[in-house]
Amino acid sequence: MTDPARGTAADWDQRYAQGSPWHAGPNVTVREVVSALPPGRARDVACGDGRHSIWLAGLGWSVDAVDFSAVAVERGRETAERLAADGALPGPIRWAVADVSTDRPEPGSADLVLLSFVHLPPDQARSTLELSASALAPGGRLLLVGHDRTNLTAGVGGPRRHEVLTDPDEVAEVLTGAGLRVERAEIVRRSVAGADRDALDTVVEAVRPVPD
Ligand SMILES: C[S@@+](CC[C@H](N)C(=O)[O-])C[C@H]1O[C@@H](n2cnc3c(N)ncnc32)[C@H](O)[C@@H]1O
Q1: Is the CB–ligand 1 distance for residue 117 below 6 Å?
Q2: What's the whole-model pTM score?
Q3: Atom 1 (ligand 1): residue with closest C-alpha?
């Protein structure tokens, strides 16, 4: 599939059935941001086959991993079980097959909410952000990393559809409306092996304020 934003759960199932489409290990920005945080409860929104969930659990986080591709979730679960059997996964992972644009997380159940390369049509993107924000406990942090819209003209990789690509200001506006305090909303360059230019990632970090 050339357009990762296109597709139903069945389309994604088909794609994951052919093997893992992603690099193993965390995205560079996810690694940088999360490494500075103490382990707690994490929600990995549209987790795919679990590269971040498994990495987080390896650091001791307790993870809720959600994706609507049953094939991806099963693949993640199998990998996690293998690692746990070797004693390499100190944190638990609860895997769930659900649509993240409608699935209601338990309010305040996460200290970290991660959205990594989740590209949805505008209405679904908005509801996914709002529902994701609702999962954050006071003091918790939401991190979004996505293919920025400027990739269409100045970057590389990601979907080629303007309406599903991310924009820092738009994401920040939705998260502010959902009661979060945005600490960072910018475009970050990421080098891509073999590419003649960098990928441009939307990076947004926001926290749920602690009530006085
Ligand atoms: C580009 S992959 C990113 C996976 C993972 N976050 C990562 O960074 O490795 C996008 C994922 O979004 C999932 N997805 C797309 N729409 C979804 C929806 N409405 N609900 C749940 N998952 C969805 C797909 O199944 C796929 O696993």
Answers
A1: yes
A2: 0.96
A3: 117
